Amino acid sequence: MKWFSIFLITVLMITSSFASGSKGKSHNKMEVLQKELNLSPEQVTKLTEIRKLSKDDLKALKEKFKVSRKAVKESMKNPTQTKDELNATFEEFLNTREEFQKKRFSMMLEMRSVLNPEQIGKFATWKDANRGKRKAKKL
Hints:
Distance between the termini: 41 Å
Order of helices and strands: HHHHH
Largest sheet: none
Radius of gyration: 22 Å
């Protein structure tokens, strides 16, 4: 029983260490960007504020977008839906997606205005490099 308890505690400790810190790094995105782009404290403050102000709106719009996408899928499965009803559901989906993308783009423009031209270039390079890493993780 004693060995089983030690084994169980060891497994729990190992599992919790993997869950809490991926690859031993505990950086948030803003800390990484600050380092990679050489952001000033003022820039970090402005970028954080922009993200904070947009976060709730984007979250609500993203949820609305997911719901409307699901509604389109469900409507397409429903044999009793008329062509007009399907078109209306799809239009709602398109409008929601467009609203979400406009809000997200607006936030990105605000954030971009805080960066200097060199930082914008570095950010684009960093983003492309990380996009490749994320795709590799999904495979």
